[in-house]
């Protein structure tokens, strides 16, 4: 009997301890963790830089109101702007990804009021894409173009229009007088590890220029080094200049924190900065960016940057892809994604899952049994999301488990 609302279909596993890329269950069994809290535990479990940062800050000051100056916020915001985005802008801290996206959507609404349509009406519409995932709040759920996320919660928050991903013509046709922004994950995570093409991202950028729209990137899963570049979009289209960016997941290494960035670019001839639209009183969060959360994120980000983890990500990504490609396995159709945000497209005929389950779920459960934690992305895609500092030998060990598991499943 559980007193938890049954919102999650849970795996039969209770994790009680973690270290680096490994976790242990309540029976003492060891697992390689290539789920990593769904792309959250970016520097592995209980990394000393993270646990030290958290315990030092917990011993000094855990929380203080955003009515006062919080030096850890200033430090983290400056690191994000100067060393991650490298474009002038400002940051707001939230506690989760969905909240960061809500803030980003609110920024687009403000922009639509500041720069109305030619008839004087405020613009408010944000275009998002099929198979996107932006979160579970009323705002981020409405932005998420997947029926299964929205079912039962009608009416949706108005102001979103959905367009097929990577469809340049459909996107151009969808822009109206009400459009204020285009929002996307450069690499869709939950929706199946689908990459935007470079042409698509470039086209979005030029449409945004042409129609005076905000280019809004959800980097919650693909950001913070996950794809082998500090920003997910850089692994596809290095010179893209987003107006707003949301982060969460890997940013706190397991400690809850999210953020959104708003560029300082001038939005009109008097030099009004986009970031200035989110002025005093326009947004807030009691917990957002408290000293403890910021200390944790500083510990994580400095580790990612100082230890050059992006280089390891690219290296280990190649190691995984080369190995899997060499198998020519009947159960695998393709590998998608960048860096250590990888999706293995599964051949459902070869895996032949029993009624009521999916190829990805079947494989995921079997891998768990064999000591490797992974996570599905939709019915036919297995997602690999190891910590960014995963080692050669841990990759090799995981690949051995994957190969053996696929071999035994495909023989059934
Ligand atoms: C996980 C995720 C979110 C939602 O983040 P939460 O912290 O669960 O609210 C939003 N966008 C993307 C791309 C995500 O992967």
Protein architecture, described:
The chain has 412 residues and is α/β, with parallel strands linked by helices. The protein has two domains: 15-33 and 308-409, Aspartate Aminotransferase, domain 1 (Alpha-Beta Complex); 50-306, Aspartate Aminotransferase, domain 2. Helices cover 36% and strands 18% of the residues. The protein has helices spanning 36-39, 48-58, 71-85, 97-114, 138-143, 147-150, 168-174, 198-211, 291-306, 309-327, 348-351, 359-369, 392-411; strands at residues 15-19, 22-25, 30-33, 89-94, 125-129, 160-163, 179-184, 187-188, 194-195, 214-218, 244-247, 258-263, 332-338, 341-346, 372-373, 375-376, 381-384. The strands form four sheets. It has a seven-stranded mixed β-sheet, with helices on both faces. A hairpin with a 5-residue loop joins strand 8 (187-188) and strand 9. It is globular. It starts with 14 loop residues before the first strand and ends with a helix. Pyridoxal-5'-phosphate binds at residues 96-98, 101, 133-135, 185, 189-190, 218, 220-221, 248-249. Pyridoxal-5'-phosphate (PLP) binds at residues 96-98, 101, 133-135, 185, 189-190, 218, 220-221, 248-249.
């Amino acid at each position: 009997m559980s007193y938890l609302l049954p919102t999650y279909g849970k795996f039969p596993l209770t994790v009680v301890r973690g270290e680096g890329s490994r976790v242990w269950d309540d029976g003492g069994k060891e697992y390689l963790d290539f789920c990593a809290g769904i792309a959250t535990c970016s520097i592995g479990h209980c990394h000393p830089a993270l646990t030290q940062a958290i315990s030092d800050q917990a011993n000094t000051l855990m929380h203080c109101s955003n009515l006062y100056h919080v030096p850890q916020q200033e430090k983290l915001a400056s690191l994000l702007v100067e060393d991650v985005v490298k474009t002038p802008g400002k940051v707001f801290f939230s506690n989760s990804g969905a909240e960061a996206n809500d803030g980003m959507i609110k920024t687009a609404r403000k922009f639509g009021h500041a720069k109305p349509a030619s008839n004087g009406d405020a613009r408010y519409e944000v275009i998002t894409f099929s198979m996107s995932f932006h979160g579970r709040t009323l705002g981020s759920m409405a932005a998420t173009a997947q029926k299964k996320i929205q079912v039962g919660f009608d009416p949706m928050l108005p102001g979103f229009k959905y367009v097929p991903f990577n469809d340049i013509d459909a996107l151009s046709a969808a822009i109206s007088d009400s459009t204020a922004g285009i929002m996307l994950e450069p690499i869709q995570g939950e929706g199946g590890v689908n990459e935007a093409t470079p042409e698509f991202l470039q086209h979005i950028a030029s449409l945004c220029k042409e129609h005076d729209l905000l280019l809004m990137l959800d980097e919650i899963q693909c950001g913070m080094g996950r794809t082998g570049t500090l920003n997910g979009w850089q692994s596809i289209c290095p010179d893209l200049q987003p107006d707003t960016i949301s982060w969460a997941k890997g940013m706190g290494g397991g400690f809850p924190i999210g953020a959104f960035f708003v560029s300082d670019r001038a939005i009109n001839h008097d030099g009004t900065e986009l970031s200035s639209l989110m002025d005093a009183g326009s947004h807030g969060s009691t917990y957002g960016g408290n000293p403890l959360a910021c200390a944790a994120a500083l510990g994580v980000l400095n580790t990612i940057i100082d230890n050059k983890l992006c280089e390891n990500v690219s290296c280990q990504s190649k190691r995984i892809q080369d190995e899997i490609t060499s198998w020519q396995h009947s159960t695998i159709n393709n590998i998608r994604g960048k860096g250590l945000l990888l999706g293995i497209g599964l051949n459902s005929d070869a895996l032949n899952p029993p009624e009521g389950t999916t190829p990805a779920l079947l494989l995921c459960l079997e891998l768990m049994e064999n000591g490797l934690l992974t996570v599905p992305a939709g019915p036919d895609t297995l997602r690999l999301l190891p910590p960014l500092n995963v080692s050669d030998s841990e990759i090799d060990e995981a690949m051995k488990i994957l190969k053996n598991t696929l071999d035994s499943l495909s023989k059934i």
